[in-house]
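To: structure subgroup
Subject: Chain for Friday's discussion

All,

I'm putting the inputs and outputs inline so they're searchable in the archive.
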Amino acid sequence: MPLALLLLIGLDPPAPAPLTQVGDVRALSKEDAAERRPVELTVAVTFVNRHLRDFFVQDVTAGVYVEESPLALGLAPGDRVILTGFTAPGTFAPAVVATGVRKIGSAEFPAPELHNLDPDDNRWLDARYVEGRVYVQRYQYNGVRVLFSVATAKGTAVINVPAAGLNLSRAEALVGSVVRFRGVCNSPRHDPNTGTASAVGRFLVASLDDIEPLPESNGSTAPIPIVNVHRGFVTGPAPFARPVAIRGVVTYALEKNKVQEIAVQDGTGAALVYPSDPTDLRVGTAVLVRGYRSPRSNAIRLDNAFVTVLDSPLPAPKLLDTSAEQILREAQWGRLVRVEGEVRASAEREGERLVTCTDTGRQFVVAYTGPGGAELAALEPGTQVTVTGVAFPAAAPQDGDVLCIRVNEPGDVAVRSRPQPPPPESWWTARRVSRLLVGVGVAGLLVGAWILTLRRQVRRQAAEIRARYEREAELSRSLHESRRLEALGRLVGGIAHDFNNLLTVILGSGQLVRDLVPAGTAADELLRTILQAGERGADLTGQLLTFSRRKPIALEPMDLNEVLQEIEKLVRPAVGDGVRVVTDYAPGLPLVRADRGVLTQLVLNLATNARDAMDRSGELGLRTRAVMVDGRPVARLVVSDNGCGMDEATKARVFEPFFTTKPVGKGTGLGLATVYGIVNGLGGTIALESAVGQGTTFSIDLPGDRSAGTGTARAVPARPRPAPAVGPVLLVDDDPSVRATTAAILRHAGVFVVEAESPGAALDLIRHATEPFAVLITDIVMPELSGPQLAEQVRLRCPDIRVLFISGYPREELPQNTMPREEDRFLHKPFAPVQLLVELQALSASLAAAPAAGPQ
């Protein structure tokens, strides 16, 4: 049933169907989830947080978080339940607010998804039951839960275990082990600007029983010499990168942009270490490092590392005297080295002092981050220096810099010799003379360049002025076309108004005659056909009024096939005899909410565009299909031709206003732009397929109206019902045929009617009437006085009179003060007798309910 009719008879629209799959909930946008859509999910409980009274559930499609509710206290992991409630936007993804939970048994846990702590897994595995193999770095106990910090070669995470009944010694025994865990992936922390999950994963595990040490991988993290570090794997269903452990002395430590970079060296080699959490370290500190060998670097680099300070000191690392060439050739990254070089330049970038040097033709950069550093900035080009620091690959090579030696203090750059100043010389030297000549030449070149630039500016300004005149000419042509269309619209609107008067006579008289003929006879069927033709004529005038913008767009459920069959009668003469129109209307289309007028304009625009593309000779196809898009029924309209087609450049701009490939004066460039606007206004989508020489196909998807079923036939005008008891009616209309037909309808229904051919005649009847009139039925646009002006004059003598305004113009085109009182009614021509009697019944009811007015 249409929504407007539901509201008219006082019924609420039907509630939306509840969502029954978790995947449908997770597919909602944050805005859609905030609309509190109903859900009824059959799911398994995967985790219950009894402290916060929230929980997680999952079905075969996805998992979802259920917000805080007392209903969580009666649940346990593994329960199979029917969950009812509504959606909520959540903090990271759509969530559910539970209003009811009914247990229906127990369920096996869903097969866990593999999570390797990659930050992307935090997004697409959110709220799912997962499994991972990780290295336990440390644990914390906060009185409510135990938090394990874990890592893999892909990333880091925190595992939350409720502390109730927990053996802390058992938790402590897991530190330093490779374990397999099972739990729910929870990503509540995210960037509000991008909506992406944080890089650090988070998992909810029911108990320590779900964290199992892997015997085949433990005992493998004993410290080894740095030179023996390599990338290994733990065997199993999915390869798991094996963590490694080293011991050594810190030779460099820097934290920048929340990322810590450490160099550690032992007696065999050196490693670059990137901890998962920054640690306060000093140069010379003995440390134990556990992490993962990176495959992306030829250096020994440990990512997602955990650093522990040792109580006992280790031997100081050995200083290596080397050269830039040897460091690069032997990949001596992380080693404490001493290199000699010559200063080329000094600069500061992002708070870091950089000195560019060369060593026997090989360029490298000396970097210092810390307080001071003025002596480094004072180094002149040509200064010979000895640099003691740690070798790093350059993070962002500049001008061939691929080696960076980081120093811990400015004194690590020792000056061996400074450049000698040049001897003094007289002013008139060959160098200065040559410079003077060069200056004069440069000045001449600058003057010539200025003249060339000035000429280019003059040409550019002339081109801009010419382009401005061309744009103004194009706008003038567009304005002329708009005025021509506006004039045509006014003409069409006036013709449609006159036809509405004629159709009022046809429909009213036909219904009266049909009332006099016995139902089911041949005459009754002929009269029924006449009334149907009149209704179609009313639709055509409505389309004309819509074209002239004198009728507002009224969306109502309609059968697309039925509308296309009517539009087809307009398309065939519009495209001409040389174009063959082929139709294929699929049955069972869902009803769409649309307006017949705008659908007519849409199809005619596409048809005329196709006619021009085929040079008035070819085949035009009109086809419909019922399809499902994103689980929703859609009525698809396909308009195709076998014309010249379009290239890629034309397809990219085809929906732009005023864009046309036709010669000047042959097209406005508004046809397809209007089609695009109509489709968007109806909530649909439009797609274009075309190639040069292969024709063009437009596919338009209009969403189905779920409040209605499939297409229905047009209703035949009902036989008028008797009017309620009402006092005398004064009928005023300057069109004799409309006035006579309206009076006949009322008299046939038993109403006493007095006719007046003009407002002046109506006022004379009022002055000489012996009994006051109960209802005034008047046209709006009349000579002498308008309908509203006549109503005000009549109310001076009959204050209680009710007024029904009738007009062939839509109500939206009439003046704003057309109906000065709320109880006044409006009826648009053409109207059926039953519509007139319904309006009269409403006026009679309001007249009976209103208190009598006092004397004026």
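Points worth raising on Friday:
Residues 711-720 have pLDDT under 50 and may be disordered.
The two ends are 47 Å apart (CA to CA).

D.
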